[in-house]
Amino acid sequence: MKDENLKNIENQILNTLPAGRSQAITLEKLAYLLHINKKRVSDVVADLRKRGYLIGSNRQAHGGMYLIVTSNEFWETVNTLQKSVNSQQAIINALLKHEERFARV
Fold it and tell me: Which SUPFAM superfamilies match (predicted)?
């Protein structure tokens, strides 16, 4: 899946990620295979996802990342991300109840 518009590390990650949830690879293992740190892998994967690459993640025990290949994997990823967004929005809303106590700088 080589794309000439991608950086080398992006291509390496996409070529190393397995197809399908059942073959998911942990962040640690992916970082080890590519000889880079976990934070770098996480940042690159997040950027690729923001640009529409079909990268799913399994957050259960022994989970990992994978290339989305089925409808179920796609919707599971979308629903997981939506729950995270909703949770973060609830936290922001709760914090904003106190905004009058703090001046914007």
Answer: Winged helix' DNA-binding domain
Length of the chain counted residue by residue: 105
Note the pLDDT tens digit of each residue in 22-73: 999 999 999 999 999 999 999 999 999 999 999 999 877 677 999 999 999 9
| Domains defined along the chain, listed by start | 8-101 (1.10.10.10)
Cβ atoms 28, 42 nearer than 8 A: no
Contact indicator for 102, 81 with CB cutoff of 8 Å: no
- Segments in 1-105 forming alpha helices (H): 8-16, 27-34, 38-50, 71-96
Residue type, 23: Q
Q: Would you state the structure tokens that stand for residue 37, as one six-digit string?
A: 């740190």
Place of tokens 């690879």: 25
Helix (H) or strand (E) holding 57: strand 55-58
